Amino acid sequence: MKAAPDLYKPLRKKKKDGTFRPVLAPRGDLKRIQRRIGELLLRVETPDYLMSPVRGRSNIDNAARHRGAAAFHLLDIEDFYPSCTASKVAWFFGKYLGCPPDVVKVLLDLTTLNGVLPAGSPASPSLAFWAYADMWDEIDQLTRDAGCQVSVYVDDITVSGQSVPGVLIHAIKERLAHHGHSFKASKEIGQINAPVVVTGVVVRDRTLLMPNVQHLERHKLRAEVAKLPEGYEKAQKMASLIGREGTERQILARNNFH
């Protein structure tokens, strides 16, 4: 779809590391339609290895899936949404769901922009998975055949096991490339017999922990709150502090389940 100029507004969204990524925010009426499509797709049963976007699963669940592993390999897909093509989205709507061609055309007009999925659309997270469901299933099969397990959290891929063979990682990268995706070499991590951060949660043996950087941020927030006078800024920082403390409780609570 080549959208009318006013259907999307370019914005920059701040990431956790302080950098910004460009997004295209859809106009209100289009966003409501995309949100409805995304909500309907969330009702479709998903494989166990998919952790997001899935109702009832979180980044903590993603990390918990890999507790007890001795080896880890983490991959991050480069420019994920811009690499998801309209042709693959059409395959999902047409071949996977069986929609007639005229319906596929309408759905593509509503969910894609200039031949790809726009970052910022509420429908893009689910469509990015389902449009490449064949690729993800291939990667899952490769991983299970190697005696390992994989999880997918949007564009983060985590592979773990008692060992993670290099030939397996090479095969996963080949499948990504075959389907038009690449990975960020700067974010690739291989770890053996050592703690690793998986989607913002430390996995150490069978224990989940909050990363040290989050502890430092919480300590900093607590100090700032103590110095601020009553008012809007203090309330905002207090809400952030409460949120971080709640996240840690959720992480630690998972260690009580076996």
Question: What is the total tally of β strands?
Answer: 10
Query: What characteristic shape results from the CA principal axes?
Result: globular
Reading off the top of the CATH hierarchy, the class of the domain at 48-84 and 132-203 is best stated as Alpha Beta
By secondary-structure content and strand pairing, the structural class works out as alpha+beta
Helix and strand run: EEHEHEHHHHEEHEEEEHH
Which percent range fits the helix content? 40-55%
State the assembly state of the protein chains. single chain
Structure keywords:
19% strand; magnesium; alpha+beta; globular; Alpha-Beta Plaits; 3-stranded antiparallel sheet; 9 helices; 5-stranded mixed sheet; 258 residues; 10 strands
